[in-house]
Design goal:
The complex is a heterodimer of chains A (about 325) and B (about 290).
Chain A (H helix, E strand, L loop, with lengths): L1 H19 L6 H27 L7 H18 L5 H23 L4 H21 L1 H4 L5 E2 L9 H24 L1 H11 L1 H6 L4 H27 L1 E2 L6 H14 L5 H20 L9 H15 L3 H11 L21
Antiparallel strand pairs in A: 1-2
Helix pairs in contact in A: 2-7, 2-10, 2-11, 2-12, 3-4, 3-10, 4-5, 4-10, 7-8, 8-10, 11-12, 11-14, 12-14
Chain B lengths: L2 H30 L6 H19 L2 H24 L6 H23 L4 E2 L9 E4 L2 E4 H23 L1 H11 L1 H6 L4 H27 L1 E2 L3 H16 L4 H21 L4 H15 L10
Antiparallel strand pairs in B: 1-4, 2-3
Helix pairs in contact in B: 1-5, 1-8, 1-9, 1-10, 2-3, 2-4, 2-8, 2-9, 3-8, 5-6, 6-8, 9-10, 9-11, 10-11
The chains are: A mainly alpha (about 325), B mainly alpha (about 290).
């Protein structure tokens, strides 16, 4: 347990460094960090589904994109930048409503349906955003303005940092609450949780709603930071971003996706610099994909989970379990 | 020829293509509980391989064979090295196959480039025949023919042969089949490779019908195949066939009247089935 205490101290030091950073660092680094913070929150919301509830969504971009578009549309269509805060709320409401619908539709059947159906709905929203030019700006996307006082890079940086810390504490609270414990019980053995009297469907829907709402907040932050949205916020690539960060960082840890988001972003920048050396580095997604596959196969707990096991000898997190509780006989299959 | 008949034939042709993709997906899921998210990648790899071989040799038949062979090989590799170690762990399988989808799509871009490639119809199948005083493309009729023949062949294979019985029994209860002294693992590998070959064949056939190829087509068609599998019922061959025709028709009709809403209608159909009959139109009640 001594090591965990050390990790806490390490985190506190890191946080202090991040808080003081704007005083000394370059503007580019600040912009990079803002993006990392936002992706980190988005990936953490994904971890609540994958790592804590044990369900795989392939449509998480839907919620992220909803948040971004809600802010953009409200600000651009009314020409009143202060309405972005109303946009955040609208995004949250839509995200919650869509989560309930998707959850109710797909969770009554086998777990894998959820993966297919989330993918289908995300693709549907993506196409709507592309075709509905009048509202979304279609393929070209849309720029919008935000209130004057928010345009300062340092203000945005602190906002994003506070956002990350608050969301981490909130999700940590959820994960350690009786609700979170129940979700983990569902992940480990759904049939058992059901026979103990837990309404598994309801718990799963609640988890999808919380996850969707947090993802839409991250999307709203992203929109505010970029002051521009296009359909890429709803694309499958955006979902893959959360998936990569969560898997590489470590599922079921919450801090893992944060680490994953940072690692991926800095690796991406390094690879982009290498692209001038050799064109293979332009296809950086191949490399990330291969790393992702290796991690799923050999280190199912990701960076954070694997390190944590090394230090504590414990067993927390990880993706290995039968999703629908159908443990097949390993001697046969 | 009336507009209705034209749309029906077009819908049937598209349905056959989706069916080739959905059949393997559904069989593999029914048999092994593996939802293969890389199925669309196999489809598009098959399409590009077939296109290349067709370009080299000038023979569309050889292109079809090469595409199917590439699909078979990819399916075998996937099952052997990535799926087999994770039987019973659905989450790892889904995560892995999606990762493979990403890597295979990127590799495809590295080999053939990310841009459109024109895929012309073979000379034999160009042109049109007259049906009820109106021209109709020969190639689409060819698709309907090939799709029907393949569907009947696979159906007979599943219902009339020893292998088919083993496969269907394996869907019901793999442990029992194993206990009867049949090597279920080998059956699984064969079905996986076979389903992949069907998907790849669908890819090669899809090319001339669509007129061109680009890497994202794999994911787009996979999505339609998923919708088909949900509508038809997982593991049901008949369901995959009926669902494919339904989606093909819906897609074609909407494409004519209101193209933007084509996917919306398919997703709505899927939602409707999930509300009314969650196990799918032909799926077994669990």
């Amino acid at each position: 347990m001594q090591k965990i205490g050390n990790a806490r101290i390490g985190l506190a030091i890191l946080l202090a460094v991040l808080a003081l950073l704007p005083l000394v660092s370059s503007r580019t680094l600040l912009a990079t960090l803002i993006q990392i913070f936002i992706v980190a929150v988005y990936a953490m919301s994904y971890d609540l589904l994958l790592g804590y509830t044990g369900i795989v969504s392939f449509g998480h971009a839907l919620f992220f994109g909803t948040g971004a578009y809600a802010v953009a549309i409200l600000s651009a269509k009314t020409d009143r930048p202060e309405l972005i805060f109303a946009g955040v709320l609208v995004g949250v409401v839509i995200a919650a409503a869509v989560s309930v619908v998707i959850g109710m539709l797909s969770l009554r059947v086998r777990a894998v349906y959820f993966s297919m159906i989330t993918l289908a709905f995300a693709e549907l929203f993506f196409i709507i955003a592309e075709k509905w030019n009048g509202v979304t700006g279609g393929n070209d996307g849309m720029s919008f303005s935000i209130p004057e006082w928010m345009r300062d890079r340092t203000v945005l940086y602190y906002t994003a940092l506070v956002f990350l810390v608050v969301m981490y504490l909130f999700l940590r609270r959820v994960a350690d609450s009786p609700l979170g414990r129940t979700l983990q019980a569902i992940r480990e053995n759904e049939n058992r949780a059901a026979s103990l009297g837990y309404d598994v469907l309801r718990f799963k829907v609640v988890s999808i709603v919380i996850s969707g709402v947090v993802a839409s907040l991250a999307g709203a932050m992203f929109g505010i930071f970029q002051r521009f949205v296009n359909t890429s916020v709803l694309s499958l690539d955006k979902t893959v971003e959360a998936l990569l960060a969560t898997i590489i960082g470590g599922t079921g840890t919450l801090i893992g996706p944060v680490v994953g988001a940072g690692v991926i972003r800095f690796a991406q920048d390094a690879l982009s610099d290498l692209a001038t050396v050799h064109p293979i580095f332009e296809r950086w997604l191949i490399l990330f994909g291969i790393v992702y596959i290796v991690i799923v196969m050999f280190f199912p707990k990701g960076i954070v989970g694997t390190l944590r096991d090394k230090w504590t000898g414990g067993r927390k997190g990880g993706v290995r379990h039968a999703a629908d509780g159908s443990e097949r006989n390993p001697d046969v299959l | 020829m009336s507009l209705t008949l034209n749309l029906l034939l077009n819908g049937a042709a598209l349905g056959m293509l989706i069916f080739l993709l959905a059949a393997g997906l559904s069989l593999i899921f029914g048999l092994m509980g593996v939802l293969n998210f890389a199925h669309g990648a196999i489809f598009i790899w098959g399409a590009y391989t077939g296109w290349t071989v067709y370009g080299w040799t000038g023979s569309f038949g050889l292109g079809l064979l090469a595409g199917a062979a590439a699909g078979w090989l990819l399916g075998w590799l996937l099952e052997r090295w990535f799926v087999r170690p994770f039987y019973g762990d659905h989450i790892a399988q889904i995560l892995l196959t999606l990762g493979l989808m990403i890597v295979l799509t990127e590799l495809l871009k590295a080999v053939w480039g990310p841009n459109l490639q024109n895929f012309d119809k073979p000379a034999l199948l160009q042109g049109a025949v007259t049906i009820l005083h109106d021209p109709f493309p020969v190639y689409k009729l060819f698709l309907i023919g090939v799709g029907t023949v393949l569907a009947i062949a696979v159906h007979l294979l599943l219902t009339r042969t020893r292998y088919g019985i083993i496969i269907r029994a394996g869907v019901q209860d793999p442990v029992m089949v194993q206990a009867l002294g049949i090597n279920v693992r080998r059956v699984f590998s064969a079905v996986f490779a076979f389903g992949a070959a069907l998907a790849a064949l669908g890819g090669v056939l899809f090319g001339p019908s669509f007129g061109s190829l680009f890497p994202e087509l794999g994911m787009q068609n996979q999505l339609l195949a998923f919708i088909v599998v949900v509508i038809g019922g997982i593991g049901s061959f008949l369901g995959a066939f009926a669902g494919s025709l339904l989606i093909g028709l819906a897609q074609t009709l909407m494409g004519y009247y209101w193209p933007e809403a084509a996917l919306a209608v398919n997703v709505a159909l899927m939602a409707l089935v999930l509300i009314l009959k969650p196990e799918g139109l032909f799926g077994a009640r669990r």
